[in-house]
Design goal:
heterodimer; A: 270 residues; mainly alpha; MetI-like fold; 15 helices; 0% strand; B: alpha/beta; D-Maltodextrin-Binding Protein, domain 2; five-stranded mixed β-sheet; 9 helices; metal-binding (chain B)
Chain lengths: 270, 265
């Protein structure tokens, strides 16, 4: 199979236009809005706007919270994906469907749902407050919770897909050689699905970085503690669309640079 | 590796996308323009962009208008005045704009999209607390207590600007836990009991129908919001836009608005 494709590649064939035309249309569709931002950006006042302290503050908060949310998603999401892909239990299909709920839920609704559970008067939240004095809404930890809630499904789905596609014979061989299930997971399964985990983590991080609805609803909006870049963009849009464009460009540029450098480092590794 | 594609393979998709984009922006304008104002067929649809705080009162007025002008329908876009003003400035097909502050109306008049707005009501802030008032708030200075969790509107939106003015008049420094993007979001935080107090409009307290408790405070008089209304210069509905503004300014309109808690200018 592999040899056959190699063979075909030597004779350069023009891609069929039925694929090429929609592919380029798709690319244009995705890239044109970005071009719109670039065209309308107030380039002359850009340096002055970037120097404003609130931009750096919001950017830092965004990067920190998205990274912690991704770490949290990895810690909880990879085992969850493993459970869905490698074990059999009653209601597994239902559980898998439930995992994707945050993908479908409008993020603002997700934020309200989080308030109802983890808020000061929420089912779990009131207990958290009375027992430990912990309140999540309006704190940076609340931002992380909101972002992880919305972004973790991307990781779980991606890792579960990788686990299903992985060859289970290696795991079985390790098990027959006496490895425990934990050892198999750690030494065989995880290295095998690492590209899927990395891809999932990248998706998860990107989604967390852009999170708006759940964050503003659950964590509120206060400079320095909960005002992430998307919130700052939205607020700037109310009065100063140009400032909003600058903020969006900063967020875009930083995320593209980070993702591109990660890609070179890990994803392209064989 | 450098494989050349015929030029049209690039041009076509770009044209396709641009074409689609053109359809997208033309569609709303087209639906409003389907009933040309100057033609034999009169315009039958009025699109009103109004501040979120006007939701209840304007919905009722819309029904009055439809009853008085058979065959017409009034469509509303309620939202933050600042957002609505931006949408109008970007060419949204609106007939009437009712804003919660002169500053947001100015965005539209500065772009020459409306002239001579009329102030039709005024709104006043109140302290909103959850119905059981857990922090025992009963006057404005209680909000300065660091133990009291307070939500305010962001300064960029009219209710936030009014809150800053009122707190300034009282000489109080309040550190809110959150600055919400509009007054309804602020109110929701009180309704859910996530904050102990918030500054919202009197009309929002009335509209919440008992879910929050309102407390009037004297400094609110120093931060009264004027609500201007104007028919837009390029109103697709033409004369009907003026007529809707007329209804809002009429005694009947005033009656509906006063019942919702607004004050006459």
């Amino acid at each position: 199979m592999g040899a056959a494709t190699e063979h075909h590649r030597t004779a350069p064939a023009r891609p069929p236009w039925v694929l090429l035309v929609p592919a380029l249309a798709g690319l244009a569709f995705l890239v044109l809005p970005l071009a719109g931002l670039l065209v309308r950006a107030p380039w002359s006042t850009l340096p002055a706007r970037l120097a404003e302290p609130y931009v750096l503050e919001a950017l830092r908060l965004s990067l920190v919270t998205a990274t912690i949310a991704t770490a949290m998603s990895l810690l909880l999401g990879v085992p969850l994906a493993w459970l869905l892909a490698r074990t059999d239990f009653p209601g597994r299909r239902l559980v898998r469907a439930l995992v994707t709920v945050p993908l479908v839920l409008p993020p603002v609704v997700g934020g309200v749902a989080l308030l109802l559970v983890l808020g000061r008067r929420g089912l779990v939240g009131q207990w958290l407050e009375s027992a430990f004095g912990i309140t999540l809404p309006f704190t940076t930890a609340g931002v992380v919770v909101a972002e992880a809630f919305v972004a973790m499904p991307f990781l779980v789905i991606s890792v579960e897909g990788a686990l299903r596609a992985a060859d289970r014979r290696y795991e079985e061989a390790a098990a027959t050689l006496g490895a425990s299930r934990w050892t198999v997971f750690r030494r065989v399964t995880l290295p095998m699905v690492m590209p899927g985990v990395v891809a999932g983590a990248v998706l998860c991080w990107a989604r967390a970085l852009g999170e708006f609805g759940a964050t503003i609803t659950f964590a509120g909006n206060f400079p320095g503690t909960t005002r992430t870049m998307p919130l700052a963009v939205y607020l700037a849009l109310e009065t100063e669309p140009e400032a909003a464009i600058v903020l969006s460009l900063v967020l875009l540029a930083v995320s593209v640079v980070i993702l591109a450098s990660l890609r070179d480092r890990w994803v392209s590794a064989p | 590796m450098s494989r050349r594609f015929p030029r049209w393979t690039v041009a076509l998709p770009v044209a396709l996308v641009l074409g689609l984009a053109g359809c997208g922006s033309a569609a709303p304008a087209g639906s409003a323009a389907a009933t040309p104002a100057g033609g034999a067929e009169r315009a039958k649809e009025v699109t009103v962009f109004a501040a979120a705080s006007l939701t209840g009162a304007f919905t009722a007025l819309g029904q009055h208008f439809e009853a008085a002008h058979p065959g017409t329908s009034v469509k509303f876009n309620f939202g933050s005045s600042a957002t609505l003003a931006q949408q109008i400035a970007q060419g949204a097909p609106a007939d009437v704009f009712a804003a919660a502050s002169p500053a947001t109306m100015k965005t539209v008049t500065d772009a020459s999209l409306a002239s001579s707005p009329t102030t039709f009501v005024r709104n006043k802030l109140q302290i909103a607390v959850p119905s059981d008032n857990p922090a025992k708030v009963d006057e404005l200075k209680d909000l300065a207590d660091p133990k009291v969790k307070v939500a305010l509107c962001a300064e960029q939106v009219p209710c936030g600007a009014a809150a800053v003015k009122a707190l300034g008049a009282a000489g109080l420094k309040v550190k809110p836990v959150t600055l919400e993007q509009d007054v309804k979001a602020t109110l929701t935080k009180v309704e859910l009991g996530e904050v102990d107090a918030a500054l919202v409009y009197r009309t929002d307290v009335i509209a919440s129908a008992g879910k929050v408790q309102g407390i009037a405070f004297p400094e609110a008089d120093k931060a009264i919001n004027d609500y201007p209304i104007a028919a837009l210069a390029k109103a697709p509905a033409g004369e009907l836009a003026q007529q809707f503004v007329g209804l809002v300014l009429s005694p009947q309109g005033r009656d509906v608005l006063t019942k919702a808690g607004f004050e006459a200018p």
